[in-house]
Amino acid sequence: MIKHFDIVCFLPFNRCLIYVTIEEMAFCPKKKNYHQTILLLFRRLVQGVLTFTITVYFIFSPCLASAATKAEVLTITLYPSNVKIGETFTVFIESPRKLKTLMLNGLGEQQPIYRICHKDHPFVYRSFLGVSLRKKAGDYPITAVAEGMNGKSIAGKAILTVQEKKFYTQKINVPKKKRSLVNVERLKKEGRILANRMKMRDRKVYFATQFIRPAKGRISSKFGARRKYLNGKFSSFHKGIDIANKKGTQVKATNAGRVSLVANMKSNGKIILINHGHGI
Predict the structure, then answer these.
(1) What pTM, to 2 d.p., does this model score?
(2) Where are any strands of DSSP class E within the chain?
(3) pLDDT level of residue 47 (50, 70, 90 thresholds)
């Protein structure tokens, strides 16, 4: 008569299941405890009177694999992930561990990224970005590459969808006595000064409340309008909004910040540039 002894053991470190079937070609004594039975089986195995088969099952756990993969990926969230040309969006990056370096790339260039405080997530980064008026509609990859404190690389990717948006054309008639203000070389020079100051990145964030409108009045020119001067001889995209009101109207800062430029330019007029931090 053949008796079967089944032994099952699980090795968690190798994630495998070993199933052993021992076939004994004789009767096994009945009145023996567990330890005596194991010793008897081992003795008969050595004597060659036992045959056995071993089956190994490798257990793959999707949950464990998913957790391991997720731990090695930067999670990028775009808010919103669908914008129109000229609009802004926010990039949030969450890392599973502390980072030594972090690089954010999107819309064809490297973008600034800043770490922020979050009570539930210790390693969260943020960036405020805008879609250039010269960009075309389509899908744009937003990627991040980082190096952990252990020297290992970690990366993430998201897709930003940019939709078409139409901007109106604004023709501006300049009086003869003020046409000297529309000087291409002077405008380029003043533009470089403003651009250099706007490129200043402050890792300190100064604002903690919602931004406000700087002044009351009628919006005389919207953002993104293509302005044409002197019958189309000179044109540019309007990168702000114009608020019309009477002389002496109070103008407030839209939020807390640090003044980075005060100037009285020949073509652009009186300017106060405020750095609110984190690229704003």
Answers:
(1) 0.69
(2) 3-11, 16-24, 50-58, 75-79, 82-84, 88-94, 99-106, 109-111, 114-116, 124-130, 138-148, 153-163, 169-172, 218-221, 226-229, 234-237, 242-244, 258-265, 269-275
(3) low
